[in-house]
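Discussion board: Methods & Data

I've been asked by a reviewer to show the raw model output for two of the constructs in my manuscript, not just the figures. I'm not sure how much to include, so I'm pasting the format here to get opinions. Each protein appears as its amino acid sequence followed by a line of discrete structure tokens. Is this the kind of thing reviewers expect to see in a supplement, or should I convert it first? Here is construct A:
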Amino acid sequence: MSQLRIVREGEGSGYPKASLLLRAGARISDVLIAWALFYATGPAGVVLALLYILFADGMLQGQSLGKKLFGIKVVYVPTRSGARHRDSVLRNAPFGLIVILSMMPELGMRAFFAGLVVIGSIEALQCIRDREGVRLGDTWAQTQVIDGKVQADQPQRATTQQQEARATGRLRDLQDMQHRISSAAAAENREGP
């Protein structure tokens, strides 16, 4: 059984910064899932989309469906374990606010897009500038997004070249999978009914 280790302030997490491309892909996937929930469930759609955005990172031991697809995960740094639902809600609160803005009477989608631009820009800029990729929501929740191949209880430092190689390999794998799916669909269309 592994022991939990509390990380002290100023030590840094010890985890390498996850690829920003993988993080962007995972976020886009999760937003598309929330958007599908919004449209598929009628009047309750906005609530279900909000709940998915807030709780998604605590679903699969620190991975939302998008993060699982792109091979990254959220770690609660003080205990070096996968993010829980509480951590997920705290780290995704800025994005939850964007969904809440869409519920404003008379402003609706204009408030949503304004919030998306302002909050999204602040979070993205913070993530890019921070050496560990920690954004405002991660600071609140004491979390960090890491490569899924890194064990949560065994942080390690990786060089920039290693990080780029991981991201490139994952993106190549995703492109290969998309190519196989589209080839299979094209073959099926040629065969006809």
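Construct B, same format:
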Amino acid sequence: MEAYSLNRSVPLLAEADIVVIGGGPAGIAASIAAARCGKKVIVAEHSGQLGGMGTLANVSVFMPVGNVTGIYREIVEETLPESLPDSHDTSIAPQYNPFLLRHYFNEKLEKENVKVLFHTTFISAVKERDRVTAVIVHTREGLFALKAAVFIDGSGDGAVAIDAGADYTTGREEDGLTQPMTLMFMMQNTGKPVQRSLPEGCYTYSSVEELPQGRHLYWERNSDGTMLVNMTRVKGNGSKVEEVSFAEKESLRQALSVADYLQRNGFETYTLSHIPGQIGVRETNQIVGRYTLTEQDIVEGRRFADVVAQTNYEIDIHSPDGKRGTDERRVDGYDIPYRCMIPAKVEGLLVAGRSISATHVAMSSMRVQATCFALGQAAGIAASLSIDTHCPLPEVSMTELHRELGKQGVRLLKEDEPVASK
């Protein structure tokens, strides 16, 4: 491949204690947690809105986890109080309004004194030896640098860690294929038959078996007649430019075609009301960390001394080869250790969210929004403790981390089985 070199001086835009790359669930929780520890925090967000796939791609339902705690619980309490469970260990799966949640996040981070830079895209990491000391970002005004004591990669793709030299894996072990992408959309019950319109280039699905996922999957919100539809499927890796470019076009064809199918099969009064501006991405890259979460950890319900998040969301693998069908397996509950967020070869950086160190199967369970909020909160606190105690991120005291998590409303469930140390 022909290559070009770029050698430029980039001005420093801002300096903070902690810079978070990515304003999705992990980045949001990390920034709030760090700000509550008294740290100056900057979030660099590629798009024009916070919330990650939950707002950008209309994945507007919190999938059920068995530990509704910490900042995630706070978000539910403030935006969906009717869905808040009495106990922390009760699973919920509330649907939410992505437009209102987007506004809520803007207001929330402003109240927490977190500075958010929108339309700010990560370009490269600046290192001194193995330590990340700054990042180069692209803005509407050109290239700038952001400097910090600690960085948190909430990009969803492990972009900062990988650019800084961290090892990583992609997709399933045998062939590197990732879970397919999906464009979720909304339909609205008008109360009267609607006129269908299937544009040129779309598909006429005649049966459930012909649908991209081979199934019906939607959530109806009875309060306002809204229906959230999750029935498209496009094979590909969302971090690959050619593959995601194809997926954006193909998923739109499928969304329009699925809407037409539904209007012919029981939803004659529903009109297509919202298609988000980008496709939803389930899986791209996983860093290689100090520990890799495995399928065995999940199915055996393993406990860890350095636990920072817990979930019992099922193993949920949408077929990476793009075929119909989904591998769904019940999970009783397990710990995610802090070491999964620490890249093995990079200093001054934590990775939070779906791109932590995990196998393909393990990632399919830990990838949902509630768990990413939990991981982000732990990352923000750990980064703050590292600064306060002048110690490397891997050496952060678990006693202090757990104590501060507790102060911030996190309840880590304990079981009688012995805690695993490795």
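Answer (T.O., handling editor elsewhere):
This is acceptable in a supplement if you add a one-line summary per construct. For B, something like: The CA atoms of residues 188 and 271 lie 5 Å apart.
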